[in-house]
Amino acid sequence: MKKAILVFSILCTILSIAYLAKAFQYPLGVMNKPGPATFPLFAGTLLLIGSIGALVQTLVKAPEGRVEWPKGKGLWRVLALTAVALVYAYGVDFLGHIIASSIVMLTCLQAMGMRSWRWKIVTALLLAFGSYFLLSTVLSSPLPGGILESFL
């Protein structure tokens, strides 16, 4: 188990560094008007702190037990969420926040086992439009423009 956690911690550390490098390409803004880099920098820093913390904790005291990869539905969920995270990261500039966030939310709700497609779509759209309103209007944070945002 120690080896698995070490590998996972190192991969998360590399991912967080790559995420932070991408976030620094956006303007940071100022205190009263945060830029689009504010949230990604915050999230990337938390991921970096967590992965380094897990790495240090594993090196100091190795956990006992065995880690197994998920099988069946569990494996599908891991692969689907990984794929949708990559689609969001690399597609948000083209698709825009609303469409990319809707895709992420639909995938997450499906992975969580929500049955009704009507409620999945309504929930995903409400969260996407709600976060767009919160970030762009309330916080005045510019979001990547996409296909749909050009009409708003």
Give a description of the structure:
The protein has 5 helices and 2 strands; from the N terminus they run H-E-E-H-H-H-H. With 152 residues, the chain is mainly alpha-helical. It folds into 2 domains: 1-68; 70-152. A two-stranded antiparallel sheet has the order 1-2. Strand 1 (29-30) and strand 2 form a beta hairpin. The longest helix is centred in the first third of the chain and has 23 residues, at 38-60. The radius of gyration is 18 Å and the shape is flat. The termini are far apart. The mean pLDDT is 83.
Structural class: mainly alpha
* Helix percentage: 55-70%
Order of H and E elements: HEEHHHH
Principal-axes shape call: flat
Low-confidence stretches: none
Give average pLDDT, whole number. Answer: 83
Number of DSSP strands?
A: 2
Count of discrete domains: 2
End-to-end separation in angstroms reads 50 Å
Strand content: under 5%
Spatial ordering of strands, largest sheet: 1-2
Quickly count the helices. 5
Instruction: Sketch the major β-sheet.
Output: 2 strands, antiparallel
C-alpha Rg (nearest Å): 18 Å
In short:
With 152 residues, the protein is mainly α. The chain has helices at residues 2-23, 38-60, 73-95, 97-112, 117-138; strands spanning 29-30, 33-34.
Outline the fold blueprint.
Layout: H1 2-23, E1 29-30, E2 33-34, H2 38-60, H3 73-95, H4 97-112, H5 117-138
Antiparallel strand pairs: 1-2
Keyword list:
3% strand; 152 residues; two-stranded antiparallel sheet; 2 domains; 70% helix
